Every structure is written in structure tokens, then in C-alpha cells.
Amino acid sequence: MVSKKFLFVGRETQLTELRKVLNSDNPEFVVVYGRRRVGKTLLIKEAAKNEFTFAFTAADNITKLQQLANFASQLSKQFNTASQFSFKTWFEAFFQLGELLESLPEDQNKIIFLDEIPWADTPKSYFLQALENLWNTRCAFHNDIKLVVCGSATFWILNKIIGNRGGLYGRITHQFKIEPFNLYESSLYFKERGFKYSKKDIADIYMVTGGIPYYFSLMKTELSVVQNIDYLFFAANAPLVKEFNYLYSSIYKKPAIYLDVVKQLASVGKGMTRQELIKNLNINGNGGFSNVLRELEECGFIRAYLPFEISTRKKTSKNSQYTLYQLIDLYSLFYLRFFNEHKYYNENFWSVNFRTPSLNTWRGISFEKVCLWHIPQIKEALGIAGVDVRVCSWIGKFDGEKAQIDLIIERKDNVMNICEMKYSADKYVITKKYAEEFEHKLNIFLEATHNRKTPVITFITTNGVKANAYSSLVQKQIELQQLFKY
Length: 486
Description:
Blueprint: H1 12-22, E1 28-33, H2 40-47, E2 54-57, H3 64-78, H4 90-102, E3 110-115, H5 127-137, E4 145-151, H6 154-162, E5 174-177, H7 183-192, H8 199-209, H9 213-217, H10 225-234, H11 243-249, H12 256-266, E6 272-273, H13 274-281, H14 287-298, E7 302-305, H15 308-311, E8 324-327, H16 330-340, H17 349-353, H18 357-372, H19 375-382, E9 389-398, E10 401-411, E11 415-422, H20 432-449, E12 454-461, E13 476-479
Parallel strand pairs: 1-4, 1-5, 2-3, 3-4, 11-12, 12-13
Antiparallel strand pairs: 6-8, 7-8, 9-10, 10-11
């Protein structure tokens, strides 16, 4: 039986731009990066129509000589040469690649695809210097050569390739950062593959997988969302149970500290400062730890932001000490909530418990993170798509009373949206108790911050707010379906 070939969905803008680059009349050095499983390789293959002059994927956790042996084998195979190559250095390997490229006719573009290149940069391999030499002495002089490099170790790509201050400085012609699917792209994916899911269904699976296409690809069309979550995580040999540790170890050479940070942030919704993390982890807060935080941020696992009371101040170098780091990777949040401290052996755990208060609490927290991934859609729904904003939260006190606001969209038009994010199966009901508590919280915030901007109470919900005696509290509503805009 021949398997169905699905249409390529999502990434339309990147796909169009990458195709244009690969068909240009100039030499091109293209960098594609993003976290593991996000679909980088698939995008490149689609743009090139899977027609590469040469393609090589570096392997994880092998030696330089093993990498070179693989490279030599692929070189002989793909160029269909009688020679059996053997290399001791990357300079030799790339020299031979250059020789073979120049032996080909110049009547069509030649696409060289080097995937997962951070894995090839083993100690004392001089891979990067050899790559520099390949571009500067060969590729840059041939308008028909398009060199595409790719990797999941985002920080390595940014520092070693894009931010290179050596032989590759200023050489990159185009760069593409590939993000997880948003809700709109996720809906296209499920529709193309025959899933009959509602927008709420898609949001539910998004809160578990974080919009990672590979995780979607493991799902079965005949199963409901609840059943698919059981299959992915709780069934015997569930495909995504072991993914968590491999995800981090495949990106970071020494993953322990990254995992420690992620686990620590998973326990605090609003986030933690650098100093709080150092104290809780009992580590030396040197410059290396700052790199850890930057690497996690560049890979999309965490976000860094200034709390409201700091973001309103004049920017100074001292403000950085107040920066909060917040875990926003939905897959990591789900895994750490259900597998870090507890092990569930019931293959039907999600089906049995999906309506329990514990899971509803998790949904509320996860829905907040979904909203953070869809700030552009929220801005459009508010009619401020072109307005510069600061996205932050606030926690503080006034006259000894504490309060917290999880999402504030501070605008340049002297308005700020005070956002409440509420997940519910039906329309959200504002009770008298909730209305009183919210108004009290808002008053504490306004008094504590001496804010002069106009607050607009905004509710972001799955199904809207139910009209009753207290719903007039809400000045602006955004429903889940509005987060599905492109």
C-alpha cells in the first residue's frame, strides 16, 4: 500500500523566501536554525524539492574520525564516484567536496545541505575553520552554489555561524529561525492529515505538545485528543515519555544544568531572577550561567522579561538584575508536571482523570502560556497590531496586601490591557466573589505602581464570558478562536 503524500502546510512565508534564495543568481550562504523537532530539515527539503547536489547530516556523540568516515561515504555515494574517499581532517573533506562541485557543469544551481552541524564541531576538529575555508575559497566565487547549514543547537548557530567574528564574518546571506507552529498552523496540519478536531481540541493538544510538528506526526487520526495524549505519554512504550531528556541532551553537550534550570522554573509560574536561580540551585553565578540562560531563551524553552514596575522605568544596566526568567515550553511544562515527581503507570490516565480539579489547574496554567505564544494574535484582536507594546506581569503589595497580575500589555497609546486568561469547557462565569477579589487586586496594583495609564480589563477565554450581573467588569473579550489567526 502506497502511503499518502501530504501537502506541506505552515511556514508559507519561510518556504517562499527560501525557495527564492535557492533559485537566485548569486552565491548563497543560508542558515536555518530552531529547536529540535520543529521541522527545519523538512522545510529545507521542501524548498529544495529534495534535490540536493550533496547532503550530509552530522551524528550525535561520535568522534571526528567517525564523522569524517560518514562524510566520505556520502560523498562517494552521492557523487557516484569510483573513488573511496578517506579523510583525516575537515579541511581535506571540504577540499574534496569543492573539487567535485567544480567538476560539475554550471547550467544549474548546486545545493549543498549540511544538517546538524553543531554535532560535527567536536573538540579540536577545526570543523568551523574548514567550513569557513570552503565558503571563502570555493563557494563564494560561484553564483550557482547555495550552501545551506542547519542545526538544533541554536546558541551555537548564533554564536559560531551568524555571530562569527572570524572568517565567516558578514558572509551569511540569509538566516531563518524556525519557531513551533502557532494555533493557526497547527489547525492546517490537522486538517491536511484528516483529523476532525475542533479549535478547542487543537488547543488542548497544543497545551501538551507546544506546537511541535514532529509530536503531531505521532498522533493517530482514529483517536480523540484525550486518547492520543494517553497514547503519546501514558501507554506502554509511549513515544514521548523518553523525549524530554533526549531533547535537552541532543542540544546541549552538558545538559544537567539546563535541566536543573528548567525544573526550577517549572515550579514558579511568574518566573525567577538570575540571582534566585543561583541561590536555589546552589551554584556559582559566573558568566557561564548567563550563557545557560541565553541558550535556553534562544531555543524557546524560557523567556526573559522585566516585571511591570521595572519595565516602566528608564532603561539602565542595573535593571537587568530584575529580569525574570519564565518557562514557556509547553511540552516541558507538561512533562515536568506529570512525570518529574510522579510516575503514572495507568495507560488510560488522561482518559480517566481529564476532568479532575488537578488537571483543570494544569490547564489553566498551560493556557496562560499558550496566550504568551500568541501575543501577535492578541494584539490584532485588540486592534493594536501596529502599536509598540511591552508584555510583562506584576506581583507586589500595598499596605501589606499582596496581589499578582499575570499578563499586562502596556501600550504606547497611554493604555494598558490588564489581562485575565481563563480556560473553561463552557463560557467563563464571573461570580460575585471573583469580581470583588479582582477589583481589590486591581486597586492594589494601581496604588502600588502609581500608574497613570488607562487600564482596560481584558479577558482571554476559551469560550467567552457568560453574561450575568458581574460580567460588566470585562471591558474587552478575546476568545480562543481569535488566537487561530495567522
